[in-house]
Write a structure and sequence with these properties.
alpha+beta; 162 residues; Chemotaxis protein chec; globular; 8-stranded antiparallel β-sheet; 3 helices; single chain
């Protein structure tokens, strides 16, 4: 995977957290992600299609997910429920949407996004398909630690038929 394909997502996380949550996340690394998720976490996934195919996943420990939604919506949620899941789904949707705009401009052609899905619990594993390489970018913030995982490949251009 070309690491340059990650920059629109990295920039989007920082921009969205700054503008929507008024929090400055600090990147604490970048590495190839392993399958799975940490115990008691939420994973919000959204797929991409078009000239670039892949997916974006926002991984948040339960405490970070609660702090993020509470901060964003001015609430005092203490348990993961539909409101928290919807908030985290919307957050990954906004991050991917902003990155999609930058990505589409960079490629000169539109990239489309699917609908976000949220997985929650302590008894699940995230298995990545086939040869997909996921890059994980961990962040620290005043709302807690979280990470962004991205996999993206450029579609090969079909050969012209004469």
């Amino acid at each position: 995977m070309d690491v340059r394909l990650i920059n629109p997502f990295l920039e989007s996380v920082i921009s969205v957290y700054n503008t929507m949550l008024h929090v400055t996340p600090h990147r604490s690394g970048l590495h190839v992600a392993e399958n799975g998720a940490s115990p008691e976490s939420l994973v919000a996934l959204i797929g991409m299609d078009g000239p670039a195919q892949g997916a974006v996943a926002l991984h948040l420990p339960q405490t970070t997910a609660l702090a993020t939604v509470n901060h964003w919506l001015g609430m005092s949620m203490t348990e993961i429920d539909a409101t928290v899941s919807d908030g985290i789904a919307e957050l990954v949707n906004i991050i991917a949407g902003q990155a999609k705009t930058s990505f589409s401009e960079q490629l000169g052609t539109p990239v489309s996004l699917g609908l976000p899905s949220v997985i929650h619990g302590s008894d699940f594993q995230v298995k990545y398909p086939g040869k997909a390489t996921w890059i994980e970018i961990p962040f620290e913030s005043e709302l807690g630690a979280f990470s962004l995982r991205v996999t993206c490949v450029m579609n090969e251009q079909p050969a012209e038929v004469n």
